[in-house]
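Project standup — Tuesday

K.O.: blocked on the structure for the chain from last sprint. Re-posting the sequence here as requested.
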Amino acid sequence: MAELDTDEEKVEAIKRWWKANGVAVIGGVVIGLGVVIGWRSWVEYRTNLAQRGSIAFEQLLITAQAGDTASAQKQVDGIVDDFGSTPYAMFAELTRARLALADGDPAGAETALRAAMDLAPDPALASLAALRLAQVQLDRGELAAAADTVKRHGDATAFAGDFAALRGDIAAAEGRLQDARAAYQTALDAGAGNARLIELKLQDLPPDETS
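H.V.: unblocked you, prediction finished:
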């Protein structure tokens, strides 16, 4: 650009530039501010939602601990409806499953656990719900269903030992003692949480007649 000699020429040049580019500049600024404000609003919304979900879940636990199953069920429904995008919806369904088992309703527990799996925000938490589902299925004598659940979700690293223990329980229930022994040992090697119980199950297995 040629050098401008006078202030008047500079002002006129600025006016011409602004007339040609001003709308784009303003638009860019508005969009930029909108992105920043929108992002901050979204973060604040998610933070507030999580806080309210946490409070609602704590209240649910208090109600469940008090044994008020009917009220707890309503609270679970409320948490799922209002905080379905947070982990608390899944935790609420896990609580519903526990209440169902306490009331002698394993079918209701299965339904709640499947719902928890669907609501889980990540695969690790879904695997936790699947682990409990497989245990309920095993306790009901649904060996094929339990084995299928373990097969589909048992690769979760965080619960590898617990899934291995369930494989051992299923194998023992089916009379596959060698497989049960191997699965229990895998569970122990993987650091399953209920190690002492697994050791007892391993000791209680009949001797391996093939050895």
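K.O.: great, moving the ticket to review. The chain has a mean pLDDT of 82. The chain has two domains: 37-121, 144-211.
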